[in-house]
Amino acid sequence: MGTNVEVLPSQTALLERSLQLVADKINTATALHGQCTIALSGGSTPKSLYEAIAKQSLPWEKIHVFWGDERYVPPEHPDSNQGMARRAWLDKVDIPAANIHPMPTDAADPAADAQKYELEVRKFFGSAPGEFPVFDIVLLGMGDDGHTASLFPHTDVLQARDRAIGVGNKDGEPRLTFTAALINQARCVIFIVAGANKQSALAQVFAPEGDDMAYPSRLIEPVGELWWLLDESAGGNLGLATSQSRSNY
Ligand code: 6PG
After folding, report:
1. Ligand 1 neighbour 143 (Cβ under 6 A)
2. Which segments of the chain have a pLDDT < 70?
3. What is the predicted pLDDT for the residue at 241?
4. pTM greater than 0.85 (yes/no)
5. Any residues with CB less than 8 A from the CB of 22 and at least 6 apart, and which?
6. If you measure from the C-alpha of residue 70 to the centroid of ligand 1, how many angstroms do you get, rounded to a whole number?
7. N or C: which end of the chain has fewer CB within 10 A?
8. Residue ranges of the alpha helices (H) in the chain?
9. CA nearest neighbour of 155 among 119, 179, 185
């Protein structure tokens, strides 16, 4: 479906455009399917977006929230992606508790928790064996090393083809993560990336030829829509015209 790339002049413009696009995709999904399934990213970049979404009037009862990755810590831990999204957004709106589907991190066994979440997600979507759930929206960020979700360079989970949820490895620290195989089944994947420290990894990700294992964001080529929303400091030097397809970049 081609890749939509937008370079926004400032972080404020990036936030406004991200809010507009996400709200639009949520409303489209609830209109088409009666519900919207969205997977959240963690890290620092999406926090202001979640705070802005909380101020919108959206059909909260029709929105099901999942996480694309999670640090292996309890929800009250400052590094928890679940904790961040609840404080910034979910605790402020009238979304049914049953619509919130956090990644489990309490088994003291990341592989067991990954399997547990895989079963929960597959049950929610009614996915048959070998079939992948199809999310309406998957939000992603990108690290300055080119990782996304918790798909870090040269880690085993990058090879996963038959699983939806895997165990990521950040310098030996376990994470739970959507696999690239699951992300690539989504109807709409939205990368939101800000900061000059992301420039060199972005250049590698957008290069026609490159090392997918060294820059895992290159593995994200969904069957549905792919959006890259970048601020000027991250994407200004890529020489990308807005909405230009990477294949003929
Ligand atoms: C996480 C994220 C991760 C994040 C990038 C970018 O749990 O850390 O899901 O993939 O999106 O590391 O993080 P920043 O937005 O903080 O730069």
Report:
1. yes
2. 1, 240-249
3. 53
4. yes
5. 38, 49, 53, 137, 139, 190
6. 10
7. N
8. 11-33, 47-53, 81-88, 110-125, 180-183, 199-206, 232-235
9. 179
